[in-house]
Design brief:
Length: about 475
């Protein structure tokens, strides 16, 4: 119990005291310094010559010294492991009367402390840095997810700790799958870009004009979900003229054309990777993973053509168009807008962004962000999910390249967490006193769940005669109905 008290109470207190001490000792810390840890771990480094060592006054104060930066580099890249997000942190604001313009978020490792071990809190100064980079690493050795907790006198109890996507790296098998997808894509890239640009120009959409494109990826097994989205827009007088549907099936292009001239545009090319016509049977199955490739390349190629991209999954309905909101908010300097998944686990941490609805302004930062996801398809095969890759690359691009992002309100851009955990809100949508822009029916196992929940929420706009297999000659007048 005593050791557990040190871990959960002592470390946050140490965090607070050290930052307080750091703020009050600015003159002492004028030269970059490091804490001299009383243990045999690698010591974290500051860029300063060794003859600038200084020590705080008073007994039992932490020793501060500067050592060569190669040690810090080696420590960060070889020994940072078991990353666990702290429950609390300390906000140090030099001007309490003003709101912080930015926050640097250091993650403090929570390590088991016993009489033979200690934990050091390290403060590193970064000259001219405007952002912080959260390094994600995985543990070395076979016991990557194990830590010892002092629940017995001999401290022998070992518990498994979840570390989410941090333990997953690309494998040879994943790299083979990446080659299978990327090879044909790159060989046909010039042709696809020209074809795509010609299609958009025919719709009156030109690059470098700040125009928005809504992107969805659909195979034949998900046409009824796509139709439900289109019907929701028709019901709520929202235009879908800028909707571009990427599909692995050439037959889908003709099917969608029959829904109405100019209603939306479907895109297929022979260089696109083949995918089963069937809908995904469950989350993370083979069809699901293959469709993730389409989610990756469709966003990047449109950003590279200098269009702003709103990407969304097929399991959404719209109540009002969202672009007016994005246009008003992007004046604040944001590059990207992400919906809040509602999950608060490590897999979505620290931003909780859902990869099934997000808006990116076209610029070099967002284009590179999209490319890093595309190029990490091997990692997707290991983790089994686009979400894991998406979260990792979002953290890296925010830290390394200053990607500025905004997490959207759950009340305005609602996701499946609302369906399962906020019944008053769902009732408010039905009764008309809650007015979200859309609803994303995530938090489901498969397509059947999505349709079932949409119907219970009175958000299913497709007539029964058109549910399941969509008629070849389906038109909106035949298939759309008012959901309520």
């Amino acid at each position: 119990m005593k050791d557990a008290w040190v871990v959960w109470v002592g470390l946050p207190l140490l965090n607070f005291l050290f930052w307080l001490l750091y703020a009050r000792r600015q003159s002492i810390l004028a030269a970059p310094l490091s804490i001299n840890c009383p243990i045999s771990l690698p010591v974290v480094v500051f860029d300063a010559p060794c003859d600038t060592r200084r020590r705080l006054q008073g007994q039992d104060e932490p020793a501060l010294e500067s050592i060569e930066s190669t040690t810090l580099t080696a420590y960060k890249f070889n020994d940072l492991a078991r990353m666990r997000y702290p429950t609390y942190s300390t906000l140090l604001n030099y001007h309490p009367s003003r709101t912080c313009a930015s926050i640097v978020n250091p993650h403090v490792s929570q390590k088991h402390v016993s009489k033979d071990e200690g934990t050091c809190l390290i403060v590193v100064g970064l000259p001219d840095a405007t952002t912080s980079y959260n390094l994600l690493r995985f543990d070395k050795g076979p016991r990557w997810a194990m830590m010892t907790y002092p629940t017995s006198p001999d401290n022998s109890t070992v518990s498994s700790l979840p570390t989410g996507f941090f333990t997953k790296v690309g494998s040879e098998r994943g790299r083979l799958r990446l080659r299978e997808k990327m090879g044909p894509f790159l060989r046909g890239l010039a042709t696809v870009r020209a074809f795509l640009l010609q299609t958009l120009l025919a719709k009156g959409m030109e690059p470098d004009k700040g125009q928005d494109v809504t992107v969805m990826v659909v195979n034949e097994g998900e046409l009824d979900l796509l139709l439900n989205f289109v019907c929701s827009c028709q019901q709520n007088n929202v235009s879908t003229s800028n909707l571009l549907v990427f599909t692995p099936n050439a037959a889908v292009v003709e099917r969608i054309k029959n829904w109405g001239d100019g209603l939306l545009t479907a895109i297929h090319h022979s260089s696109f990777a083949p995918v089963s016509n069937k809908a995904s049977q469950e989350y993370l199955d083979r069809v699901f993973v293959d469709m993730m490739w389409y989610k990756a390349f469709s966003v990047w190629i449109l950003l590279s053509l200098k269009f702003n991209v709103l990407f969304q999954d097929v399991d959404l309905v719209w109540f009002r168009e969202p672009f007016s909101y994005f246009h008003s908010e992007r004046a604040k300097g944001h590059d990207a807008f992400f919906s809040d998944d509602g999950q608060r686990g490590l897999r979505y941490s620290p931003f909780y962004a859902n990869s099934g609805f997000y808006y990116l302004l076209s610029n070099p930062r967002t284009e590179f962000f999209a490319w890093t996801i595309l190029a990490a398809f091997d990692m997707l095969h290991v983790t089994g999910s686009h979400q894991n890759v998406f979260t990792t690359k979002l953290i890296e691009n925010m830290g390394e390249f200053g990607l500025s992002s905004k997490l959207l309100s759950l009340d305005l851009f609602s996701t499946g967490v609302k369906y399962h955990h906020d019944k008053p809100f769902m009732r408010g949508i039905k009764e008309g006193y809650e007015h979200p822009y859309n609803f994303h029916m995530c938090w489901t196992l498969n397509k059947q769940n999505k349709i079932e929940y949409f119907k219970k929420a009175e958000m299913w706009y497709v007539k029964e005669t058109c549910s399941g297999v969509i008629p070849v000659n389906a038109v909106l007048e035949r298939c759309c109905q008012a959901a309520w």
